[in-house]
Amino acid sequence: MRRLILLRHGKTEAMAASGDDFDRALLPRGQADAALMAKVLLEEGLKPDLALVSAAVRARQTWDVAKSVFGDVKTEIVPSLYLAPSERMRDLVDEWADRADTLIMVGHNPGIHELAVALLREGSASASQIAKLQQGFPTATAAVFEFDVAGRPSFDGLFTPKAYGGGAGGE
């Protein structure tokens, strides 16, 4: 793997009709932001060739929207990504790394946010980059990391819907 994209699911309903967190669906804003972020990533040349996606409804819906923008991308629904801690997410990245040039992981906070911060630290990012990312990881945000031949990450960008006219800035 040369590149990793961490994508948090889009904005969701507060509660699913079933009452189960797993079943929470995307709101129209979440759908729009997922499409926007996929478009932004694609325009930046950041098209994944493999997606690891949480089995939760909101993550699958986020990926369905994003994939419609990206086009053909091999997809694996990974039940253990649902509310996974950052350590489990990192294990999955390592497990799947040799199967993709650009891997995207669609998951949930706090794990996806914590993994992004951990990768910044591992890659010796500046204190200001770490501090900025520690401030939050809004819905439909994507953090991108490049990996060198030794597997060391370096930060390659943070993309938020609000920065491109979506999110709360688009309402």
Describe this structure in words.
The protein has 171 residues and is α/β, with parallel strands linked by helices. The chain contains five helices and six strands. The protein has helices at residues 28-43, 57-70, 86-96, 111-122, 127-134, and strands at 3-8, 50-54, 74-78, 102-107, 142-147, 153-159. A hairpin with a 5-residue loop joins strand 5 and strand 6. The longest helix is centred in the N-terminal third of the chain and has 16 residues, at 28-43. The relative contact order is 0.22. The model has no long low-confidence stretch (mean pLDDT 94).
Features:
alpha/beta; 171 residues
List the helices and strands and how they pair.
Layout: E1 3-8, H1 28-43, E2 50-54, H2 57-70, E3 74-78, H3 86-96, E4 102-107, H4 111-122, H5 127-134, E5 142-147, E6 153-159
Helix pairs in contact: 1-2, 3-4, 4-5
Largest sheet: 6 strands, mixed
Number of helices: 5
Radius of gyration: 15 Å
**Head-to-tail CA distance between termini:** 37 Å
Element order: H for helix, E for strand? EHEHEHEHHEE
Low confidence ranges: none
Tell me the structural class. alpha/beta
Helix content: 25-40%
Strand content: 15-25%
